[in-house]
Specification:
It is built from 15 helices and eleven strands. It has about 400 residues and is α/β, with parallel strands linked by helices. The structure holds pyridoxal-5'-phosphate. Pyridoxal-5'-phosphate binds next to α4 and α5.
């Protein structure tokens, strides 16, 4: 018979007799082995099993696998997924897993500001050079790749944050493949419901699952999806488990819940954003509206080919530049001034002073991110309430 103190400490037998209907949160750092030989076999990859949650956790794996299935839905592609503790960690884990000192990344200047900073300030310190080019120019892309065999990865965003510039994914993937280089895209703005980069030939997809995949602004997490499972396991999983960029089970579970309503939300985000974009484009004080669903958007045809709908993100500029933008944002009553995107409610952000603050102003301007640009993550509320608030703020 155990003493009271030992009884208090002991794990209790699992009383479950039926399976839980909803995936449980496995809040455990480690897993018990039947005997030490089983532990040895699992660590040596001779038997499937969990050991330690930095290496793998059932809640996190179920969520990653579900996202991988959504990204590869109806494509015949077998994709694998790994969740990380943020979108930034997904990008860093991908770069860390694939690239070594001396390799180069080719990318576009108009990425999410945090990604530009990560590449410039952290990834370059590991001896990985970052080269910028206009990735929409296929001939240029081809000649850059031909002229530099150390470019291992072509990394891009479509639609890009916050300009909504789009890139033809199939064209990039084809050129990169011709030169035997890898491609990766940040699919955060579109989600797998609106576009499937793997189908277009892209090798890796990353997401900030903090955004639309969670959808409710309740967690920070990221995911990497890839179609080459052995390479994934060997390089990316290995890097993730050694640096500890793995996702927590609670955060993964919140993403898992959000995924259930992804198609419904993306439909409503897209129809609301299209409605708001058309109305803003007609407004005399609005100079430009960036929304790929507008026929006037320079990348409308590309977006129409590769996206099912045009998503919930748009940005616009007012007459009067930064002063007009700041005073309009301060007059908002219904929309929130929160620095994230992809939540069910409408969020407004000023990129030049937040998401892109630390990007060199010259690079920012060249990338089309003017000081007066306002970004809107159009929510799923009644579109009339969103529009009325934006109009009263602008007027
Ligand atoms: C397009 C895009 N990618 C990646 C990230 C980074 O994601 P996280 O904040 O989850 O690290 C963000 C964040 O805003 C983003 O907008």
């Amino acid at each position: 018979m155990l003493h009271f103190d030992s009884l208090s400490v002991r794990e209790w037998p699992d009383p479950r007799t039926t399976r839980p209907h909803v995936l449980p949160i496995y809040a455990t750092s480690s897993y018990d082995f039947e005997d030490i030989e089983q532990g040895m076999r699992i660590f040596a990859n001779e038997e499937q099993g969990h050991t330690y949650s930095r290496y793998g956790n059932p809640t996190v794996e179920a969520t990653a696998s579900k996202i991988a299935h959504l990204e590869s839905f109806d494509t015949g592609i077998q994709a694998a997924g790994l969740m990380t503790n943020s979108g930034m960690a997904a990008i860093d884990t991908l770069a860390g897993g694939l690239l070594k000192h001396g390799d180069k990344i080719l990318t576009q200047p108009n990425l999410y500001g945090g990604t530009t900073e990560l590449l410039q300030k952290i990834v370059t310190n590991r001896g990985i050079e970052v080269i910028y080019a206009d990735l929409t120019d296929q001939d240029k892309l081809s000649s850059i790749l031909k002229g530099d065999s150390s470019i291992r990865l072509v990394y891009f965003e479509t639609p890009a944050n916050p300009t909504l510039a789009c890139i033809d994914m199939a064209k990039i993937a084809t050129v990169a493949k011709e030169h035997k280089r890898l491609t990766a895209v940040d699919n955060t703005f579109a989600t797998p419901y609106l576009q499937q980069p793997l189908k277009e030939g892209v090798d890796f997809v990353i997401h900030s699952t903090t955004k639309y995949l969670n959808g409710h602004g309740t967690c920070l997490a990221g995911v990497i999806i890839g179609k080459d499972e052995p390479m994934f396991k060997e390089k990316i999983w290995n890097y993730m488990k050694l640096v500890g960029s793995n996702c927590s089970p609670f955060e993964a579970w919140l993403v898992y819940q959000g995924l259930k309503t992804l198609p419904l939300r993306m439909h409503r985000h897209s129809s609301n954003a299209l409605f708001v974009a058309y109305k803003l484009a007609d407004h005399p004080k609005v100079v430009t509206v960036n929304y790929p669903g507008l026929e006037s958007h320079p990348d409308h045809l590309i977006a129409s080919r590769q996206m099912k709908l045009f998503g919930g993100m748009l940005s616009f500029e007012l007459e009067g530049g930064i002063e007009a933008a700041v005073s309009a944002m301060n007059r908002l009553k219904f929309c929130s001034l929160a620095p994230t995107l992809g939540d069910v409610d409408t969020l407004v952000l000023h990129p030049a002073s937040s998401s892109h603050l630390r990007v060199d102003p010259e690079v920012r301007r060249k990338a089309g991110i003017s000081d007066g640009l306002i970004r809107v993550s159009v929510g799923i509320e009644d579109p009339q309430d969103i529009l009325e608030d934006l109009l009263q703020a602008i007027n």
